[in-house]
């Protein structure tokens, strides 16, 4: 009889991350479509998170949304607005576990619109986003 007990250890179980699915949303018509996941779901999340004003809708958590619309029309320099919008967009996206990095921002003014373009490294691949804020 030895000094150490004979103990069996269970096999290590590695859990797979669940597939995050959502319903596609046609923002033009408001129609809800089929279930999507992967890159399509992440692209939709990016667009919706940037277009939703943070803290404005109680249905969303305090983590969801972006404050870029609150910068528009203020008497700030364009340089300051570009830096702040880049920060706000990054903060709106980076909390999602599918987003690894947000970078290469291009923010430009065209007439009465502010257009943003940037890259997102996600768990499903690289996304190049371009849109009007």
Task: Draw up the topology in text.
Elements: E1 22-25, E2 32-36, H1 38-51, H2 78-94, E3 99-110, E4 113-122, E5 125-132
Antiparallel strand pairs: 1-2, 3-4, 4-5
Give a description of the structure.
- By secondary structure, the chain is an alpha+beta fold.
- It has a single domain (22-132), classed as Nuclear Transport Factor 2, Chain: A (Roll), CATH 3.10.450.
- 23% of the residues lie in helices and 29% in strands.
- It is built from 2 helices and 5 strands.
- It has helices spanning 38-51, 78-94; strands at 22-25, 32-36, 99-110, 113-122, 125-132.
- Strands 3-4-5 form a 3-stranded antiparallel beta sheet, covered by helices on one side.
- β4 and β5 (125-132) form a beta hairpin.
The total tally of domains equals: 1
Structural class by SSE content: alpha+beta
Can you write the helix and strand succession as a string?
EEHHEEE
What is the end-to-end distance? 74 Å
Helix content range: 10-25%
Find the CATH topology. Answer: Nuclear Transport Factor 2, Chain: A
Which sheet architecture does the biggest sheet show? 3 strands, antiparallel
Look at the structure and give the mean pLDDT.
87
> Strand sequence of the main sheet, in spatial order?
3-4-5
Features:
133 residues, alpha+beta, Nuclear Transport Factor 2, Chain: A, two-stranded antiparallel ribbon
Concise summary:
By secondary structure, the chain is of the alpha+beta class. It is built from 2 helices and 5 strands, in the order ββααβββ.
């Amino acid at each position: 009889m030895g000094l150490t007990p004979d103990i069996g250890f269970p096999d290590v179980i590695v859990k797979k991350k669940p597939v995050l699915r959502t319903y596609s949303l046609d923002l033009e018509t408001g129609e809800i479509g089929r279930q999507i996941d992967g890159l399509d779901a992440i692209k939709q999340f990016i667009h919706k998170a940037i277009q939703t004003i943070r803290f404005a809708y109680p249905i969303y958590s305090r983590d969801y949304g972006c404050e870029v619309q609150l910068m528009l029309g203020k008497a700030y320099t364009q340089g300051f607005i570009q830096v702040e919008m880049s920060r706000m967009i990054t903060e709106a996206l980076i909390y999602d576990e599918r987003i690894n990095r947000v970078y290469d921002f291009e923010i430009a003014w065209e007439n009465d619109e502010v257009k943003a373009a940037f890259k997102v490294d996600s768990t499903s691949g690289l996304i190049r986003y371009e849109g009007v804020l």
